[in-house]
Amino acid sequence: MALGDLLAALRPELVRLATGDPRLPVSGVELLDGGAPEPVAPRCLLLALGLDASSADGVARAVRLAADTGGALAVKCAGGLPRGVAEQARAAGAAVVTVNPDIPWSRLYGLASTLLATRPAAGDAPHDLAGGDLFSLANSVAAICGGAVAIMDTEQTIVAYSNLPGQPIDETRRVGILSRRVPEHALPHHLTDELWRSDSVRLIRRDGYLPRLAVVIRAGDTALGSLWAVFPDEDAIGDCEAVLATAAKLAALHMLTARRHLDADQQARNAALHEALHRPGPADQALPLPGSLLCLAETAAGRRTDHHASLLRAIGLLELDARSLGHEPTFGLVNDRLYVLLAAAPRGSVTVSALADHIHRRATRLLHTGLLIVRGDPVADPDALRRARDDLDCAVAHLRDAGARPGSYATRDLRGEIVRQRLFQAVRADPRLRTGIGRAVTAHDLAHGTAYRATLLSYLRNFGDVRAASRELTLHENTVRKRIRRAQELFGFTMRNPTHRLLLELELGAQAPDAASGEPP
């Protein structure tokens, strides 16, 4: 594949040709660890992992290796190729490609190797095997082979089919085209190991149905779907295996292109959500509304320094499962929380509540992480979306403060707790809303190693029920009574005064759960 064609397929915002001939033929992709001159295959795109573009010796070795093997060197550069590197490359006659630093090498390797693996070799395709889209390709294959062609993805959705006059048809094809899905009765024959583990065209026979030739559409080692041709009988099947095999490669390129468009659209929507969650602006117009906003966060007990890694794994799981259940998700990762906007789903899709429960079970089983999944009420405009985000943040704060277990929750069930969190926010922000007793309690605990704050909070949250507070604190009831009595003596308030009780709970609750680790408000 010509280097210029490969880079164009990978999109210019990811890779650009800095020096060299775009007509340079490329036959593979190699990982070049640190630019060391290891033996590599000829005519490869060399991905220079860890290469420091400012290191003259390292760059010179990598450039010479690319020139000697007839390949191209790929280096990560944020601001364009340094002049010194460009001069070395031109002097050696080497092609150099600059790579966006934000794209992982593993992703670039996968994309490039997939495109090269699915590129039909020169002369592979018959002169009349054309196709501006998958439907045109299906018609071209049908015209050459004499069969009726259908192309499916891995979800067994029929994404294209031929529509030439006089094509053979049976009940499976008729129902499949009408529903745009492989019929239930045909699934066992579409999903056989004989077909999906094979790289060649297979003959599929079923009693009572027309014979078919089928081939899996692959991109490297990844299956993208399958291509099927129906014939009136086995005698009508001619020597068309090469045509079907080549058509499968062309179909793979079409499907990869569609996936890249979906990826680009997903990135645009994700960026719009991330911006819209913070402030009003132009991004509001790009939001897929109406919809429902969810928030995923780790529990207080499960929070780790690598929470981003856990939430990123959740994105991959949620994206796959949400789409399979009829929802189109948009993601915004902010600090230690993942916000998911689910556009209003068509009739027949599972409910947002059912999807949240499903994701929680899947994350627990597959990701081995404890997540709080909180869902808000449906929203119709960007302002409502930002209010929903505030509700979700307050709900997560409450659930963490309360030591809630991983699970799926709804803001409509936590209205009182959300309002209380807003009161806590107001107390933190405005010193005029504090009596100073809460600060004195916490300062005493820090200085003397006591636990008055925890005891008072438990007592107040349990409405003065000493037995419930003692169970929560795992203390004897008399110990709780003595602490409450002593706290009133030390800090000059009385639990008989309802105003004191209210203000004290707000002041103590507004502080960090582990008050000993930071300044009280």
How would you describe this protein?
This protein has 521 residues and is α/β, with parallel strands linked by helices. It has 18 helices and 15 strands. It has helices at 3-10, 56-69, 83-92, 105-118, 134-145, 171-179, 187-190, 193-196, 241-276, 307-324, 352-367, 382-401, 415-429, 437-448, 452-461, 466-473, 477-491, 498-510, and strands spanning 15-19, 28-33, 44-49, 72-76, 95-99, 148-153, 158-161, 202-204, 212-219, 222-230, 291-298, 329-334, 337-343, 371-375, 407-410. Strands 1-5-4-3-2 form a 5-stranded mixed β-sheet. It has a 5-stranded antiparallel β-sheet with strand order 7-6-10-9-8, with helices on both faces. Strands 12-13-11-14-15 form a 5-stranded mixed β-sheet, with helices on both faces. It is extended, with a radius of gyration of 31 Å. The N and C termini lie far apart (64 Å).
Quick structural overview:
This protein has 521 residues and is α/β, with parallel strands linked by helices. 46% of the residues lie in helices and 17% in strands. It is built from 18 helices and 15 strands.
Radius of gyration from CA coordinates? 31 Å
Biggest sheet, strands in spatial order?
1-5-4-3-2
Span between termini: 64 Å
**Bulk shape:** extended
Distinct helical segment count: 18
The oligomeric status of these chains comes to single chain
Q: Beta fraction of the residues?
A: 15-25%
Catalogue the unreliable spans: 120-131, 513-521
Helix residue percentage:
40-55%
Care to count the β-strands? 15
The chain-level structural class is: alpha/beta
Major sheet: size, sense and barrel closure? 5 strands, mixed
Mean pLDDT over the residues? 83
